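Quick one: structure for this chain?
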Amino acid sequence: VLHDIGSRGAGKRLRHAVAAAAARPVERPTVRRQSYGTTLAAIDYVDCPARSGAPVRLFSTDIDADTPSRTALARVLLGRATLAVVLVGDVPAHAFGEMLQPLRDGLFAPDWRCAHLQFMPLAPSSRAALAGLAGALGLGSGIQCQIAPLVTRPADAWTFLSSTWNHLQNAEH
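Got it. Here's what it folds into:
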């Protein structure tokens, strides 16, 4: 799952770049209100080929829904993911605590199952600010938090994301 913090749609751009590179369509299932058929949300994903041959479903929390629904669905996607990737844009250092608070709250929720959290800074200032915060974020939660090197292109982000994914898959087998 790709989650943006202050990156202005980087997750969506990365998902579309991966889909184009893999020659796979971006799928868009909808969540509808039971018995009424009213569309509540649309969640995009792309199935990517993995080294093992099995597809890896890449979601983004950039969900087409109202704010409460988007927040709730993002929390569910992140909490149930095998790997959560947080793309961090050019966020002022003083704003990091507030922007990471919903994620921190999720990590300690009883229904959180995701054990691997990778931060991808998209700006030099974000990389520096993440150094102390990411490690502290995982303390006491049992979540493994990593920080990727500075990412400037979708290809770089995909390289780090797929490398981390392959490492996790190899560790499980």
